[in-house]
Amino acid sequence: MYMTETSSKQLTEHPLHRDVPSIFLLEVIETDELEEGVLSHYPMYHVRTYSLAYATKLEDAERLMRQDILYRKKLKETDDWMRDVFCYYISEKPFGIMLSKGEYLSQRMYDAEGRSIDKSLCCTGFGTYCPNICNMSEYDRHDDETFYGHTEEQIRFHKGDIAEVLRGHEVRLAVVVGTPPTTEWISKKRKEIQDRMRSEVMPFDFDISDDSYTVIDGPGYDYHEHVPTMQVFAPIIPFRTTFKRNIRVFCTFYSLNFLISEKHGIIRATTSKNIKSMTNNNSTTNKEKKPIINNDEALRLIDLIQQGDTNAENDLAELGTVFIKAVAKQYVGKGLSDEELIAASRHGLIRASHKFDKSRGFTFAAYAVWWMREAILQKIRKTAKETEK
Questions:
Q1: Quick one: 203 exposed, middle or buried, by C-beta within 10 A (0-12, 13-18, 19+)?
Q2: Four-CA torsion 11, 16, 22, 23, nearest 10 degrees
Q3: Which one of 65, 173, 185, 215 has the fewest beta carbons within 10 angstroms of its own beta carbon?
Q4: 43-72 per-position pLDDT tens digit
Q5: Helix, strand, coil % (nearest 5) of the chain?
Q6: pTM of the model
Q7: CATH number, domain 293-388
Q8: Where does CATH 1.20.120.1810 sit in the chain?
């Protein structure tokens, strides 16, 4: 059905969760004590995750978190505790459903003092790695898995901001080059798709994977990553305003001429002029190099795909054959056959075509590569789970 921006905002704050019993898991992320004002920990340091408690209500989980904060402060006073709290998570987990570690109904994030940082009320969905039981009704897609976007006030970082990114047991420094979509943008996009297809039924919908920041921490687009909003933090050590202002300027060269490199443990940016001198040593060769997929032709096919033309999906896959194989080749030896890698890579390419928005200024290849890699990684994890059984 058609959805207004107002109704989208209401569902963002008050999603209609599936009717299942749930429990709240309190976790703490710890790091070794960081000396205040020292940059030597950057661009990466390690953290540890510990489960602290379970509670039947959110209020009880928050009370237990505050107790842990007071306990740690007392230990600090006696110099008997050498670890700092990076953050706390309270995740709402369902009862009676098989799920992976990162799956939840909702999740909230707090700083070391117990102050709320952010929350995600969009359900991740369940049963991704349980192929033998996913046909049960409990695992069917529910409306609470739809992501309706953020208000402008809820977006904590903007293009050019320096942020810390939590991935597994590591925290690294990165620069934000893309933000999660707003409620207004998603509402307009949904209506545009429905009008184009002349249907109130969406061929796909936005989900938790769209609730992410795009960050970059190396030379070129190969070092970009889409990071869930719940894993992006303000740096522990503040940076000078002039440095952050310069980073924002350099981000205008993001598509082709943006470089972040490490020197003396600090992230720095280099202007497009310097980048060209380092990367374009042979200008003739670069001019002759063809793109891995024809962007103009890809955009034409994407328009057809988003209008519901399934034959255009096959045409796009054929157009991107080299691209699909190139991405798949990066994961050889990870437990999948060549055919499985190519199939997963192709699936990611087609999924990207449904979500791609050319008005954002990216080439399709730059956008699709993340979806292709993510599809392959999901297939690798799923195969590993099946093998363990």
A1: middle
A2: 20
A3: 185
A4: 678 888 999 999 999 999 999 999 999 988
A5: 45, 20, 35
A6: 0.61
A7: 1.20.120.1810
A8: 293-388
